[in-house]
Fold this protein.
Amino acid sequence: MGRIMGVDYGERRIGLAVSDMSAVLAANPLSTLDRKALRGAPEDEVARLAAQWEVEQIVVGLPLNMDGSHGPAAEAAGEFAVRLAEISGLPVKNWDERLTTVVARRVQVELNIPRGKRRQKGRLDRTAALLLLQNYLDYRATQGSAPGEDRAPAD
């Protein structure tokens, strides 16, 4: 097993994190991609970073509504995941990420990190990616990696 990348896909920013080589721990918050600053499609940059980090699988957070339904943000993340799989050639899974940004904000508050500044917003997205990746890895550890393991499969 190799590294797994977690992607917190957003309208303005994309937070990234990668696991350790054994795919047990979400070891590194990588970076935050500012979508306005990217020269090409965000999928291209994520695929490039996945290759650089020798990633074997990508998990894209799916921001479902609290009732489990798909809203516009979940549809956009799902479409991004499909394009990313095509470009990277890697398996890409969607993963229910409800409340990861809320938890990431709480972590920042507990660590006394100021809110509102652009740098901190990027840190929030990386932290959310790290949390969704660790949640996915924990689930895999308890459930195994059998087909159909996703709580929120891609359509």
Summary: Confidence is low (pLDDT under 50) at residues 146-155. Strands lie at 3-9, 13-18, 28-34, 55-62, 92-96. The two ends are 25 Å apart (CA to CA). The chain has one domain: 3-143.
